[in-house]
Design a protein that fits this description.
This protein has 510 residues and is of the alpha+beta class. It has two domains: 212 residues, Neuraminidase (6 Propeller); 263 residues, 3-Layer(aba) Sandwich (Rossmann fold), CATH 3.40.50. The protein has twelve helices and 28 strands. Strands 21-22-24-23-25-26-27-28 form an eight-stranded mixed beta sheet, with helices on both faces. The protein has a four-stranded antiparallel beta sheet with strand order 5-6-7-8. The chain is globular.
Length: 510
C-alpha cells in the first residue's frame, strides 16, 4: 500500500543453502506514481485481479482507469500488463477501448502470450453480463461463448492450458462448468449443479480433478474433491460436531409460478422445523440487489434455518431482476423497481398460501434488506399488499429514491436502474416508484434497522422512514448500529440483530 492506495509490489526471492529465503532486491511498486488502487476497492482481491505469466516475465492487474470523482458514476475498470523481463517498463492498458468493466486477468499456464479476462459491455451497469475475453498479446481480442446468456463469475485454467473451469449462477445455484477446446470446437459440460460451488483449484497433473468449496441451505462451507470419474466427496467436515447439536429443516424446495408478464418466476420454500401438521406463521423474504438472488447457500446473516427453527415457514422469491436466470430476466427490472417485482411478490404470496394450506395467512411477516428494504417501504404504501402482513422489517432500505440519487456512494447504480438518468435531468424517473410518496397509506408496524457507516443507502433514509412512522402514530422500532455499514459484519452485533428481529416477529405473530 502506498499512502492511501493499494499497490502490487514485486520482489525477487532467493533460497539460501540453509533453506531460508531472502530478498536480494528492494520491492518495486508496479503502479509507481499512479494514483490508483490494485486490487480495486471495495471488493477486488489480489487472487482474482493479479496474474503472473507462466515464465514470470509478464504481470497483469486490474485498476480503475481514472481515479477521479467519476468512480462514483462509472464502472470503468481496466486491465494492464507490464513486461518484467526488463527493469522499469511502463504498464500497458489492453482494455482502454472499453468503457465498462474489464477485470480478473489470468495468463495461460502454457503460453505467455495468451490472457483471458472477464468483460462487461455496458458502462455504468455493474450487473451487466460478464463474458469471457481472450487476448493474445497483439491487441487482438476474441469473445468465448459469445451467445451464451450466462454471466461468468470466475474462471480457472486447466494446467495443460487447453480448457477452462467456469463458475456462474444458474437458477439460484452456483454451478461449475468445464469448457473444453477453448479456441476451436468448443465443448461445454456442467460438472457441479447443486448448491453454491466456488474456488476451483485444479490438480497439477490430472486436469479433470479439482477441489472446490461447496455449501447449501443445509450445509455450511466445506471443501470437496471432484474426481475425474465425476464423483464428489467432502474432504472437510469441521462443523460436524456442532451441527449434530442443531436441528434443521432437511431441505429447501424450489418451484415456479407465473409471475408478471406471465413469465416463469422461481421461489424457495422451507417448512418450519416444528412440522406442517399445524398452522404456522410465514416469513416472506425479499432479497436485495436487486440484481441478485436467493442462492442455495449457507450464511450467518439471513439464514433460513434460523427462522425455520422458530416455527416459521419460509418463502423467498427470485423476482424479475434477479440474476442467474439469464441476462434478459436480470435486465427486466431497469425502470421497473416498483412494478414487475411487486407483481411477482403479490402473485407468489397468493400461490404459496394456496399451495401450503397450513400457513396462517393472518400471521405473515415480510422482511428485506437494501432493495428488499426498499420493497418493504413500497409494500407499506400499498394496502392491497401491506394488509397481508402483520408487520414489516426493513434493513438499510431505500425510502426516497430521488434523494438517494444524490446521496449514495454508488451514483451509477441509481442512475442506471432508473433508465440512465440523473435526478435533475429526469426527476420523474426517480419519482415513478418512490416509496416516500404513498406514506399516507402506511398502517402496518415496521422494524427499521440501520448501519451508521452505510454510504450506499445512507442512514438518513431509514431515519426519515422511522420519523414518518412515529409522526403518524404507527408502532415502530429503530435498531441502529453505529459501527456497521450496509451489512452487519460484527458477530456480536449479528446476535443482537437476530434477537431484535425474531423478537419483533414473535410479538406480531403470536
Amino acid at each position: 500500500m502506498t499512502g492511501p492506495r493499494h499497490h502490487p509490489f514485486l520482489v525477487a526471492i532467493k533460497r539460501q543453502v540453509n533453506g531460508i529465503f531472502q530478498f536480494p532486491s528492494e520491492p518495486i511498486d508496479v503502479l509507481f506514481n499512479v494514483d490508483s488502487d490494485s486490487p480495486t476497492r471495495p471488493f477486488g482481491d489480489a487472487k482474482a485481479q493479479w496474474s503472473f505469466s507462466a515464465t514470470g516475465n509478464s504481470f497483469s492487474y486490474t485498476r480503475q482507469y481514472d481515479e477521479t470523482s467519476a468512480v462514483a458514476w462509472t464502472t470503468n475498470l481496466d486491465i494492464y500488463t507490464v513486461d518484467l523481463s526488463m527493469f522499469g517498463q511502463p504498464s500497458v492498458c489492453i482494455t482502454c477501448d472499453n468503457l465498462a468493466t474489464d477485470t480478473d486477468p489470468s495468463y495461460s499456464p502454457t503460453d505467455d502470450r495468451v490472457l483471458i479476462y472477464q468483460s462487461q459491455s455496458k458502462p455504468g451497469y455493474e450487473s451487466d453480463q460478464f463474458k469471457i475475453k481472450s487476448y493474445n498479446g497483439s491487441n487482438s481480442k476474441i469473445t468465448l461463448l459469445g451467445n451464451w446468456d450466462r454471466s461468468i463469475q470466475a474462471i480457472t485454467w486447466s494446467h495443460d492450458g487447453q480448457s477452462l473451469f467456469l463458475e456462474l449462477g444458474e437458477e439460484a445455484q452456483n454451478v461449475i462448468y468445464h469448457l473444453f477446446n477453448i479456441f476451436e470446437n468448443q465443448s461445454l459440460t456442467r460438472l457441479v449443479s447443486s448448491g453454491t460451488s466456488r474456488d476451483v483449484n485444479v490438480h497439477r497433473i490430472n486436469s479433470r480433478m479439482f477441489v472446490f468449496t461447496h455449501q447449501s441451505f443445509v450445509e455450511p462451507i466445506n471443501i470437496y474433491l471432484y474426481s475425474s470419474d465425476g464423483s464428489m466427496q467432502s474432504i472437510t467436515d469441521h462443523n460436524k460436531a456442532l451441527l449434530a447439536k442443531v436441528k434443521m429443516s432437511p431441505a429447501a424446495e424450489t418451484f415456479s409460478f407465473l409471475g408478471a408478464r406471465s413469465d416463469k418466476v422461481w421461489r424457495w420454500y422451507v417448512p418450519p422445523l416444528s412440522g406442517t401438521d399445524k398452522r404456522a406463521p410465514l416469513a416472506f423474504f425479499i432479497h436485495g440487489g436487486p440484481q441478485s438472488s436467493w442462492y442455495d447457500a449457507w450464511g450467518y446473516g439471513w439464514n433460513f434455518q434460523t427462522y425455520s427453527s422458530q416455527g416459521y415457514a419460509i418463502i423467498a422469491i427470485n423476482f424479475h431482476g434477479s440474476d442467474s436466470y439469464g441476462q434478459n430476466f436480470t435486465d427486466s427490472i431497469i425502470g421497473n423497481y416498483g412494478s414487475l417485482p411487486f407483481e411477482d411478490l403479490q402473485l407468489g404470496l397468493t400461490y404459496a398460501l394456496n399451495k401450503f394450506s397450513y400457513i396462517d395467512p393472518n400471521r405473515a411477516v415480510a422482511l428485506g434488506a437494501s432493495y428488499g428494504g426498499y420493497m418493504i417501504y413500497w409494500i407499506a404504501g400499498h394496502p392491497e399488499m401491506s394488509h397481508r402482513f402483520k408487520t414489516l422489517i426493513s434493513h438499510n432500505g431505500v425510502f426516497d429514491t430521488r434523494f438517494k440519487g444524490y446521496s449514495t456512494d454508488e451514483l451509477r447504480f441509481s442512475e442506471h436502474d432508473v433508465g440512465g438518468y440523473t435526478p435533475w435531468a429526469n426527476p420523474d424517473a426517480y419519482e415513478r416508484y418512490n416509496p416516500v410518496d404513498p406514506v399516507a397509506n402506511w398502517t402496518q408496524p415496521i422494524l427499521i434497522i440501520l448501519g451508521a457507516r452505510d454510504y450506499r443507502v445512507p442512514d438518513t433514509q431509514g431515519i426519515s422512514a422511522f420519523n414518518a412512522l412515529q409522526r403518524r402514530g404507527i408502532e415502530s422500532r429503530l435498531l441502529y448500529f453505529p459501527n456497521e455499514n450496509h451489512w452487519v459484519l460484527n458477530t456480536l452485533n449479528l446476535l443482537a440483530w437476530y434477537e431484535q428481529v425474531l423478537g419483533w416477529m414473535h410479538k406480531w405473530t403470536n
